[in-house]
Amino acid sequence: MQYERTYHSPIGPLYLRCSDTHIVELSFHGEASEVEAHHHLLDLAHLQLDEYFAGSRKAFTLPLLIGGTPFQKKVYEALLSIEYGQTASYEEIAMRIGNPKACRAVGMANNRNRLALLIPCHRVVGKHGSLVGYEGGLEKKAWLLDFERRHRSS
User: At how many degrees (to 10) do helices 103-111 and 70-80 cross?
Assistant: First the structure.
């Protein structure tokens, strides 16, 4: 069974979906049904998102169903190692996963990340720190990076 809910964040609505055991999606696109699902994982995700947007949560501790190809899963694991308030380039991620020529493929994996914020693809930037590509839009990426930098030491 799947459960869904819309979370209203400072950067707009976020679509949350879970199974009985894992969070399976957090995205900027989609819409939950009119009747909000009640499930303990959605409640926990809602609480952790409240804490994140209050500036007090630096890492999520939700059970995630990380889908994708073996390559995408390597990329997502590398993204999880980028600390709150920090960034890494596509090239750095490619090097972390042992495939230094895979910068473009890292970008494509980021694009397919179905767990925005939870797997922090917003922390991946261009080679010289430029803001490039984000499923939620560059204005949301800039907001998130600025927000994390401001709350990093709090």
Answer: 90
133 contact partners, CB below 8 Å, separation of at least 6: 107, 110, 111
The tokens describing 130, both together, are 């430029």
Alpha-carbon distances, residue 127 vs 46, 62, 151 (angstroms): 33, 30, 24
Catalytic residue among 88, 109, 121, 124: 121
Strand partners, 115: 26
Residue 59 lies in a domain: no
Claim to verify: residue 81 and residue 109 sit in the same structural domain: yes
For 75-121, the pLDDT digits (tens) are 999 999 999 999 999 999 999 999 999 999 999 999 999 999 999 99
pTM metric for this prediction:
0.91
- Cα–Cα distance, 122 to 120 (Å, whole number): 5
Instruction: Mark whether 121 is an active-site residue.
Output: yes
Query: What's the pLDDT tens digit per position in 27-73?
Result: 998 666 555 668 999 999 999 999 999 999 999 999 999 999 999 99
